Amino acid sequence: MLQLTPMHIVGGRQLQGEFAVQPSKNAALPIIVASLLTREPVRLHGIPRLSDIYIILDIVAHLGTRHAWEGPNTLVLHTPDILNTATPYSLVSKMRASFIVMGALLSRAGEATVSMPGGCAFGHRPVDQHVKAFRAFGVELDEEGGNFEARRVAPLTGSYVFEMLTVGATQNAILSAALGSGRVVLENASIDTDVVDMVNFLNSLGADIQGAGTNTITVQGVTALRGGEYTVIPDRIEAGTLMIAAAATRSKLTLTGVRPGHLRALSTKLTEMGVTILEQSSTLMVDATRGKLTPTNITTVEYPGFPTDVQPQMSALLATVPGTSVVMDRVYADRLTHVVELTRMGAQIVVSEHTQVIQGGLLHGAPVKAADIRAGAALVVAALSAEGETVIDGMQYINRGYERLAERLRAIGANVQQNEPVLAAAMD
Ligand SMILES: CC(=O)N[C@H]1[C@@H](OP(=O)(O)OP(=O)(O)OC[C@H]2O[C@@H](n3ccc(=O)[nH]c3=O)[C@H](O)[C@@H]2O)O[C@H](CO)[C@@H](O)[C@@H]1O
Ligand SMILES: C=C(OP(=O)(O)O)C(=O)O
């Protein structure tokens, strides 16, 4: 992973003005993979310039996709032929989301070899549901030497009831059956926005996938998909991070280019704490300047519940709110790498049986290190509110999910310095 220079933040300043939210990383990644299903060109608007996007582009390039950027966030992808059906460990280990190339390759080429995805700093992330769904549809699947080898021996048919709500396995299962003459039914499917956006994209190319956004999804295979043009949804996790940053700095901030409906669980919680939120069709105003915030309890669950991907940032906010708050992550019980770093900044957090008990108070600047993407975002939130200077190392993790963050935070009044990553220029 590219090493980046640390970010320096002098905190204690209010944020102000408008922040234009980037397009969604976690929606864009599966849509780029889903473009493997058509031999025609597709033009995607709203692709954020992030290191994860460049990694998935390397992976699909290995499989046969040519790409060209048209302006800052528009990407044209074209996969006339699949050139490889094996994705090596060196590529898959860089990003867990890449495991869904298995479903796309099964659909388009009838076979796939994909390495077990890499581990993650915040705990065990199994792929058993992906494997069980494929097998339920009649796919032959062997696991050998850290690789999964899958073959379509007949049209995919049957149904699978997921044992938990999983975004990635739902996407993988949909992709595997979207081409061909079979029909599969997914029960207890994820209703996450990133599943719905991938299905909307595929259906816009001629796929026949019904029920996305409900717990039962039916995929009727089609012979081929056409090319097309699609705009990816806004990034609700980036928007959520900025809402939380506004609350932590007791600021008034307007987010533009958002879908307020995707952020309801967070808006409800912040409102309960004393933050005023005003929603319009694609803007969201957060006002934390009117009086004291109150502590609260958070339990993360799958969408549309409170998202795990803003749990560390929310914990950072709660570390600034006097009183006792309790945070439990039911999606990733061990998503806790932010805790030790926040305590360097004066946060009082005790972890017991995967639960954070937070006594809010004042934070101060300190040297800290991000160990994963949202832990890094939590450190940015804490640093923006803390007295004095915080130096955040491990920026390569934050850069996975936030485009030109230092520059965009400066534009809303933060005192942030970092040599900007040269990703876009270097990797086109
Ligand atoms: C690139 C991307 O979009 N990543 C997001 C995606 O990850 P990802 O798709 O990997 O997460 P899942 O929704 O699959 O995981 C949800 C839960 O199911 C468990 N599980 C999942 C699959 C499986 O085969 N077996 C199993 O036990 C996981 O360990 C976790 O506890 O959704 C997560 C949950 O919203 C987010 O935190 C990630 O940011
Ligand atoms: C955890 C995340 O991504 P990934 O699933 O790729 O690790 C995230 O975006 O918060």
Please give the structural blueprint.
Blueprint: E1 7-10, E2 18-20, H1 25-34, E3 42-45, H2 51-63, E4 66-69, E5 74-78, E6 86-87, H3 89-92, H4 101-109, E7 111-115, H5 128-136, E8 140-144, E9 147-151, E10 157-161, H6 167-177, E11 183-187, H7 193-204, E12 208-210, E13 217-220, E14 228-231, H8 236-248, E15 252-256, H9 264-272, E16 276-279, E17 283-287, E18 297-300, H10 311-318, E19 323-329, H11 337-344, E20 348-352, E21 355-360, E22 367-369, H12 373-385, E23 389-393, H13 395-398, H14 405-410, E24 415-417, H15 423-427
Parallel strand pairs: 2-15, 3-14, 6-7, 10-11, 18-19, 22-23
Antiparallel strand pairs: 1-23, 1-24, 3-5, 4-5, 7-9, 8-9, 11-13, 12-13, 15-17, 16-17, 19-21, 20-21
Helix pairs in contact: 1-2, 1-7, 4-6, 5-6, 6-7, 8-10, 8-12, 10-12, 11-12
The structure holds uridine-diphosphate-N-acetylglucosamine and phosphoenolpyruvate.
Plain-language structure description:
It is a single chain. The protein has helices at 25-34, 51-63, 89-92, 101-109, 128-136, 167-177, 193-204, 236-248, 264-272, 311-318, 337-344, 373-385, 395-398, 405-410, 423-427, and strands spanning 7-10, 18-20, 42-45, 66-69, 74-78, 86-87, 111-115, 140-144, 147-151, 157-161, 183-187, 208-210, 217-220, 228-231, 252-256, 276-279, 283-287, 297-300, 323-329, 348-352, 355-360, 367-369, 389-393, 415-417. It has 428 residues and is an alpha/beta fold. It folds into two domains: 7-22 and 234-427, UDP-n-acetylglucosamine1-carboxyvinyl-transferase, Chain (Alpha-beta prism); 25-231, UDP-n-acetylglucosamine1-carboxyvinyl-transferase, Chain, CATH 3.65.10. The strands form six sheets. A four-stranded mixed beta sheet has the order 22-23-1-24. Strands 2-15-17-16 form a four-stranded mixed beta sheet, covered by helices on one side. A four-stranded mixed beta sheet has the order 4-5-3-14, with helices on one face. Residues 26, 95-97, 120, 309, 373-374, 401 line the site of phosphoenolpyruvate (PEP).
